[in-house]
Amino acid sequence: MDAQTSTIVFSPKTVPAAVSARIGFILLNSDEVGEGAFQLLMPEDVAVYTTRTAYSHAGGGFTTPTSFTEIANTLPPSDRFDVLAFSCTSGTVALGIPTLLRELEQACPGVKYTSPGIAMIEALKHLNPKRIALLTPYGFDFHQKFLPFLAGAGIHVAADGVFDCKTDVEICELDVEEVLSAAKALVKQSAADALFLSCTAMPVVPHLARFEQELGIPVMSSTQAMAWHALGLAGYAAPIAGFGQLLNARRG
User: What pLDDT score was predicted for residue 4?
Assistant: First the structure.
């Protein structure tokens, strides 16, 4: 029998995935921590589609070897997700929020957008602390860019500290107890009523609840804030326990 006429054609029956929200996720190629941390925070019924990009912070700026449109083209089509998240706090600060949003909107028109830098401001406004402590792992000079970034959003930094890491590997492998010790020093010095731990590559997400318990104030991180903001943008309102006050509250 002719092979062409012997093929049986079946009518496809599709069953859409049982998900409440879908998030497109752009991660830096050097971040060994951020992907797992973000997935840890996601409810089982939220789908995350991840891609990665190389980048450069040369001269204190932020560039990628290809456009954001080309990066986004390695994700599923934008009509398959609700929110596009760009997972880089320092990149947000270097580019500025208006520039980053313009790039993301051009890359994936018609969805909603977030990043750790955008979410940091939204989370701090949501909790409305009067005096925050800021701890980052970046080089000293880049860390200094965060102060006017936050001041421009009306957020008062009462104390700030930096680990002055030289490589991304150092950031990913920071000792959690050293991070907690530094946080305690900043909070004690400033009587801060909230702490923000910047950088998605800092390995702090699994420890946020313990940090809050020991410090006695809300503790936020880049990945946690981005997860909170992305879920809110996607209309996912249920609280998520175990990762700090920010997520352990109903959104919307």
Answer: 64
